[in-house]
Amino acid sequence: NLTSLGTEEVAAGSSLMDAAREAQARIEALGLPSAGTVCVRHFGGQYFSYAQAVELDAIADLARDSGSSVLLAATLSTASHLVNSIGKQFAQPIRPRDKFGTPKRHVVRKIIAERGLSARSVFMAYLRQYESLSIARRDHVAVRADFREALAKPALKPSVVYADPPYTRDHYSRFYHSLETIALGDDPSITKSNLGGGNIKSRGGYRAGRHQSPFCIKSEAPAAFSALFAGVATLQVPLVLSYSGYDPNMEARPRVMALDTVIGLAKQHFKDVRVEQLASLEHMKLNTTSLNKAAKGTTEVLLLCR
DNA sequence: GTATGATCGTAGGTGCAAGA
DNA sequence: TCTTGCACCTACGATCATAC
Q1: What percentage of chain A reaches a pLDDT higher than 90?
Q2: A202 touches strand C (CB under 7 A)
Q3: SS3 category, A250
Q4: pLDDT band at A27 (very low <50, low <70, confident <90, very high)
């Protein structure tokens, strides 16, 4: 993409590099606010066609200026719908050639189909869909906040807290960083990968300072769980905690914290802690069979804390 | 040098819907 | 009824950083 010019594999002096530099110069000459061109500079060519990215910039600008949650929701759905990546997430741009340099035919078809879509048309379809939804009559509020803040100052008095923290070391903010940037309307720098000497911008184009959940970091997870339990206990309401059971005898990837340890922490804050194993459920197996280690024994567990 | 932890790049099985 | 295409999203292996 344009933001990574000079660090990519394109040979200096090639016509593609010349075109990219000229495009960048023309964008700068327009004198637009940097946040207003962030899609085309950061995600154009990487996750969207340049034309789609330009349209997205315009749509996102409109949505943010309006302050309308419906417009913003339709914008984010449009970005999510258009993104040309593996699995429709924002951590894995398409790699159109295999390791031998041969173009992947099915990927080429996918690129042509997805990058030919009009952002405006997709946006209008989502807008019509969301505008036609009935309005919920029950009291509710959506909050974007750190869980500690949300528990310390709840927007509404809850009757129960349901928590679904991550349980592996994978930070899922990687998969939504572009939507975060579109929603915030800023112009973040892109992080550099720790691979290759640390001088190459991350292939996923991650925004600097993206959220890293303490539940995914082994050294921080115990304090995070303690804060969660303490925060809910202070509200004097029950807690339903979703976690993943894990049998250390199986080959599956260990959880950041063992279930027994989580239960032990819960018991420090609640008189009654029950564990319900959802035996009939298994996580979807989303990997090649050879890598799909031991889905059995890693089923969903609910901690009922009172 | 080794162990441990953290980050990044990556693959693809499953279930559903649409089309043949 | 069968086939095909697609969205979903988990979690692996490789690599690097840090602590000892």
Answers
A1: 16
A2: no
A3: coil
A4: confident
Is A293 within 7 A of strand C by CB distance?
yes
Query: Which nucleotide lies nearest residue A198, CA to C1'?
Result: C16
Question: What is the C-alpha to C-alpha distance for residues A302 and A279, in angstroms, rounded to an integer?
Answer: 11
A166: left (phi over 0), alpha (psi -120 to 50) or beta: beta
One-letter amino acid of A178: S
Phi, psi torsion values for A114, nearest 5 degrees:
-75, -35
Question: What's the pLDDT at A290?
Answer: 37
pLDDT digits (tens, 9 = 90+) for A273-290: 998 876 544 443 333 333
CA of A287 to C1' of C8 (A): 12
Phi, psi (deg, nearest 5) at residue A18: -60, -45
Using the C1' atom of nucleotide B15, identify the protein residue whose alpha carbon is closest.
Answer: A284
- Distance, Å, A205 CA → B4 C1': 28
In this complex, which residue's CA is closest to the C1' atom of nucleotide B5? A218
Q: How far apart are CA A61 and CA A55, in angstroms?
A: 10
Q: Where are the domains of chain A?
A: 2-131, 147-171+212-305
Rounded distance between C-alpha atoms, residue A58 and residue A125, angstroms: 17
Q: CA-based diameter of chain A, in Å?
A: 70
**d(C-alpha A197, C-alpha A304), whole Å:** 47
Distance A182 CA to C13 C1' (A): 32
The residue whose two tokens read 């034309």 is A51
